[in-house]
Design brief:
Length: 387
């Protein structure tokens, strides 16, 4: 019996003895966690990338600190809210009576009237495309022509009835109808941003052109392709003489010119390059000058990624939901004015970032009206133009 009792005590002591000190337990846990992270990283690096990026050495971005037309100012910092009914008023246009129209990302198109003193009244819903209306301009018949990224090219009559003008070209879908302008003869020039069909970080990382410039002829009801191979085709605007049409290539910081008349008809060239950010929409004022909204100033990481295909292909593996911050607009409002020849006349800034993510800048009745897109500041604003 004594020997049995001794063995029993030893067995009990073995069960109750601590397996290790708290410090050792934490050390084992951290080592296990590190092992899992290393294994996870190895697996992530071995997964094939969904893209084969093209290498590109982006030009050095213009400086906001140096003197010249890019020099930073606060011209947009005093912006007045016109309406907050549309959260993301991508584009802005006016009818013959001076009423403002803009769309929102939820499909609604709003109308804003002004009183005798020019004060904006409460926004009213004019139509609902059930899509995402971006560009909108009135044609000669009073119909609102709309480029909707989900529905294609639309026409909305004064009572709000919607007709699809085009959602295909050459038997294939119009993937992402974005912006437009209308010529005096009724021809509609508009951009099909990308055959990706949506805005995705993978396309930025891939750095290959997937956009197009299209033309719709209301007489024949036919849509044709004018230009292909554009780096995220965006804003569109005709020159005052309609001898060329511009289309913004957001991902290469440039505006491309397609000639409609003259000896260069049917060819294209660069109208303005090395902009200080991603150009979005283009509007033309009464002087024939072009105004361009800059959705975000240059992102140094993106420029570095373009010069490093391995980094780009690796970033493309990360789920889009985790990369929303990587391509979010910098909180620095910016719009630029260009001459009819493409020379930079001036830039308008809000360095405090109260107004940012700018897509549209359009002059009307002594004001510069400002539109934004999702990711930017909310609501439609305007800034009084100084003479």
């Amino acid at each position: 019996m004594p020997n049995t009792q001794v063995r029993s005590v030893k067995s009990t002591e073995g069960v109750n003895r601590p397996k290790g000190s708290p410090r050792k337990i934490v050390r084992r846990f951290l080592l296990s966690l590190l092992t899992l992270l290393v294994l996870g990283m190895i697996v992530f690096l071995l997964i094939p990338s969904p893209i084969e990026p093209a290498k590109w050495s982006a030009p050095t971005a213009p400086s906001f600190e140096e003197s010249g037309p890019w020099k930073q100012n606060n011209k947009l910092s005093s912006a007045q809210l016109v309406t907050d009914a549309p959260k993301s008023p991508e584009f802005i246009t006016f009818d013959k009576e001076g009423q403002l129209y803009t769309g929102d990302s939820d499909g609604k198109i709003y109308k804003v009237a002004f009183d005798a003193e020019g004060n904006p009244q409460k926004a009213q819903v004019f139509a609902d495309t059930k899509g995402t209306p971006n560009g909108l301009i009135f044609d000669a018949n009073g119909n609102l022509i709309v480029t909707d990224v989900k529905k294609g090219l639309l026409s909305i009559n004064p009572s709000g009835s919607i007709e699809v003008l085009a959602d295909q070209v050459d038997g294939k879908p119009i993937y992402l109808a974005n912006e437009l302008d209308i010529a005096k003869d009724g021809a509609i020039y508009f951009s099909d941003t990308s055959n990706y069909g949506s805005v995705t970080f993978k396309e930025i990382a891939e750095n290959k052109p997937h956009g197009r410039l299209l033309k719709y002829d209301p007489k024949t009801k036919q849509t044709t392709i004018l230009l292909e191979g554009l780096y995220f085709a965006n804003g569109v605007a005709l020159s005052v003489d309609e001898d060329f049409v511009l289309v913004a290539e957001s991902y290469h910081y440039q505006l491309t010119r397609y000639w409609l008349k003259g000896p260069k008809k049917g060819t294209s060239d660069i109208f303005a390059d090395n902009l200080a950010g991603f150009p979005d929409n283009i509007t033309r004022d009464e002087q024939g000058h072009f105004w361009v909204g800059i959705f975000t100033t240059r992102l140094s990481f993106v420029d570095q990624m373009h010069s490093n295909p391995w980094l780009a292909s690796t970033m493309a593996k990360i789920p889009q939901s985790l990369l929303s911050g990587a391509s979010a607009p910098v909180k620095h409002g910016l719009a630029v004015e260009l001459s009819p020849q493409g020379e930079l006349i001036g830039s308008w800034h809000d360095p405090e970032g109260t107004l940012y993510g700018i897509t549209t800048a359009i002059k009307h009745n002594g004001y510069l009206y400002i539109g934004t897109a999702p990711g930017g500041s909310l609501g439609l604003h305007r800034v009084l133009l100084t003479k």
